[in-house]
Amino acid sequence: DYWFPKKIPWLSSGEVHKKHIFCTKDMISGYGLNNSSARWIKEKSVLIALAGQGKTRGTVAINHIPLTTNQSIAAIMPDDSIDSDFLFQNLESRYNEIRLLSSADGLRGGLNKQMLSELLIPYASLIEQQQIGAYFKELDNLITLHQREYDKTINLKKAMLEKMFPKNGEDRPEIRFKGFTDAWEQRKLGDIMRYLQNNTLSRADLSDTNGFAKNIHYGDVLIKYGELLDVSKSDVPMIDDEEFVSKSKASYLQNGDLIFADTAEDATVGKCSEIIGLNNEIVLSGLHTIPCRPLYHFAPGFLGYYVNSNAYHSQLIPLMQGTKVTSISKSALQETMISYSNSEQEQAKIGVYFKELDSLITLHQRELKKLQNMKKAMLEKMFAQG
Fold first, then answer.
1. Is the separation of the CB atoms in 386 and 171 below 8 Å?
2. What is the pLDDT of residue 205?
3. With CB atoms counted within 10 Å of each terminal CB, which end of the chain scores lower, N or C?
4. What is the mean predicted confidence (pLDDT) over 319-341?
5. Is beta strand 213-216 parallel, antiparallel or unpaired with respect to 283-285?
6. For residue 262, which phi and psi values (nearest 5 degrees)?
7. Rg of the chain taking only CA atoms, in angstroms
8. How far apart are CA 311 and CA 329, in angstroms?
């Protein structure tokens, strides 16, 4: 018969770390009130994770709605002399200091309320606190805005990669640009591309500063490069052996060539980058890569996005070999099926669409990083450090 609603948002210590800025209702996954250990937390309380794995312990949150939690989270409700937003930002700026209070080492361990009660909190007048709290709250709003736009664009790209290329066994994509209705062609990769020669130079054989040719390493394809690799703008390691580069002339890459990573520690094996932006640079394909050159002309970007979509990559899963390290062979790769529109205009529209999505993703990522760096710098400057 308690007056609280039956479904009160429940916050775990892990969610304090993952979603610690606002803790609004839509960010909390579960509910809890019937739990015997549940505690009712008033809104505008400052929350600190007392336990957890990795970086969870010591993270700080401020809840903008009433919620419930258990003893794994310390809830601080400041008195009238302390602004909640100010206290939240102050404690967030002291994350490393709070973690050092913990008596436990390793992944698991904990803080306790007694440890936190010993923290000295320097504070100004309430008016100044409120202005500082409002300033950082506005920064957090901007950070959240760009994070949401970034996540939204990432999810849009993922969805469109599923819908703008035909699924296995189908000859038309689910979504197409207006004016295109014809069935897509299906050919084996080995029938429309020829393999080029890669080299086996290790990372230690390459230079980060100068050289006579750029060299595409499989680790960079897996981790650093996207579907399109603009070699004029990207950070690509160099080969400083002029004689080696001269002898590899038959393997110089061209715009439109594809570079597959043939090994990985997981199912990302087969990830691929299409070369674009190449002018006068010499570019070679390096260790654990399979370079391919299309025998027919494709619109820039089309193949790069297609071979990284699930429509194509799903074919590679049963062809992968190995346990701890997974690989795929040239012979297996050449038997995979490539689906493509016979209209180069449709190919071009698809390539441009995904390239524009990538530009939006990069824009939000840069703005997000800039704002995060600004907040970090201002936290250091606007709060007295112990």
1. no
2. 93
3. N
4. 94
5. parallel
6. -95, 0
7. 27
8. 19
The average pLDDT across 271-285 equals 96
Would you state the pLDDT for residue 21?
42
Condensed to tens digits (0 to 9), the pLDDT of residues 92-129 reads: 888 888 887 775 444 445 688 888 887 888 888 999 99
Locate 14 and state its tokens. Answer: 């892990």
Query: CB burial class (10 A; 0-12, 13-18, 19+) of residue 67?
Result: buried
Can you tell me the distance from the alpha carbon of 329 to that of 321, in angstroms, rounded to the nearest whole number?
9
Residues 40 and 119: their CA atoms lie apart, in Å, by 24
Confidence of residue 336 (pLDDT cuts 50, 70, 90): very high
Per-residue CA distances from 219 to 172, 277, 328 (Å): 34, 21, 15
Closest CA to 254 of 271, 238, 275: 275
3-state secondary structure string across 82-111: CCHHHHHHHHHCCHHHHHHCCCCCCCCCEC
Phi, psi values for residue 276, rounded to 5°? -135, 170
Q: CB–CB of 260/275 below 8 Å?
A: no
Strand segments (E) across 91-231: 185-188, 193-195, 213-216, 228-230
Q: What integer pLDDT is reported at residue 47 of this predicted model?
A: 86
Question: Tell me, what amino acid is at 200?
Answer: T
**Three-state DSSP string of 303-358:** HHHHCCCHHHHCCCHHHCECCCCEECCHHHHCCCEEEECCCHHHHHHHHHHHHHHH
Residue at token pair 């524009």: 356
Nearest CA-CA partner of 341 in 333, 350, 330 = 350
DSSP state of 174: S
- What pTM did the predictor assign? 0.81
User: Which letter does DSSP use for residue 133 in this model?
Assistant: H
Cα dist from 289 to 195, 216, 279, whole Å: 11, 8, 22
